[in-house]
Every structure is written in C-alpha cells, then in structure tokens.
Design brief:
191 residues, globular, 32% strand
Length: 191
C-alpha cells in the first residue's frame, strides 16, 4: 500500500493487478467476479421481469465497503476494501494531480500531502460486449441508495472528479452504469 498522508492508505494497484500500470479486473458494482460482457440483463441486481424497458435495481446495500459485496475485500482479504465516497473526495482534493506515464502506460499521478505518490493508469472500462473502451472510472463502495441505479466513482479525466454513475437515460458527462465493468482501486484499513 501507499500512505499518502490521508485518512486511509491506498493500494499500489487495482484489484486483480500485480503492477500499478495494469488494469486488473473489471467489475460491475457490488459484484465480485469479472464477466465476458456487461449488460443490464447480466447485472446481478437488475430485474426487468415486468417490462423490457423498466429495470428495477435491488442492490444488497447502499454501502458495500468491507462486506461480501466488496470486490476488494473478497479478492484481497480482510483489511482491504473499496473507498467510501468521502475517501475518494479526500483523495482528489488533498492530492496534487498530473498526467504521467509508467512503463509505457498513460495515467495520472497523485501526490499526497506527505509527498508520496500513487499512479492511476488510464485503462478504460468495459461496456456491453465491446471490450475495453476509453474513459477510466474507479468504483467506490457507496451508492445513493439500495434501489438507486447509480453508484459513486472516481473519474479520471484531465483532472480527477467524483461523481455518481447513472442509468438509464442521458445524464450528461458523468453518466456511467452500475452494470458496466470498471476497475476497482483498494484502500487499506491498516494502521
């Protein structure tokens, strides 16, 4: 892990990755396995039995940090979890950010208040069955509510942002899908 001088320590790499510049796995929110495609119809917590155009979301919890629905906890073990929305906001606003390259992979380098650094690779995301597409978003472990179709994420653009991922419908630049496959960065609950 990397201690950036924030309230939590951050993993050096995404879930399922052995190096900071690698993508790791792509996961739908609150699911702990990767998939070959990412659709509403194969999202574990989406039910559309009543109408092909009406989708009901029944996520297990609105905060999955450290639970059996948290991919970081399940893959990396106790002590690891996805960040909360508040921790993501702290990361973004307490660090300085700049474009960077690590082993030929473009991304962003965050420098913490204590001068230590962490690299976030631009590794895209998976949507439907298109493979990896542009736009790098990292899940947090929080959603506005259990029945909501959105979850909070860290978006890596020219500057990082925290937003809520939404579906369905056009919701502007920050429209993202819970069912889509995003990389997950881990935080450590370690002293």
């Amino acid at each position: 892990y990397v201690d950036l001088g924030l309230s939590v320590k951050w993993a050096k790499a995404n879930v399922g990755s052995d190096a900071p510049e690698k993508a790791g796995g792509y996961y739908s929110w609150s699911e702990i396995s990767t998939k070959s495609s990412y659709w509403r119809e194969n999202y574990s917590y989406c039910n559309n039995n009543s109408n092909q155009y009406i989708f009901n979301y029944t996520n297990p919890l609105s905060n999955i940090c450290g639970t059996q629905y948290d991919v970081a906890t399940e893959v990396m073990g106790n002590g690891w979890r996805m960040p909360t929305r508040e921790e993501a906001v702290e990361l973004i606003y307490s660090c300085t950010w700049e474009g960077a390259e690590l082993n030929g992979v473009n991304g962003m380098m965050a420098t913490g208040p204590n001068g230590r650094k962490i690299f976030f690779p631009h590794v895209g995301h998976k949507k439907q069955d298109k493979g990896v597409v542009s736009g790098t978003w990292l899940w947090t472990g929080e959603s506005p509510s259990r029945s909501d179709e959105s979850a909070y994420y860290i978006g890596l653009y020219s500057q990082p942002v925290v937003g809520a991922a939404h579906l369905p419908g056009e919701r502007g630049v920050l429209e993202l899908l819970k069912k889509a496959g995003y990389s997950s960065i881990l935080t450590a609950n370690l002293p």
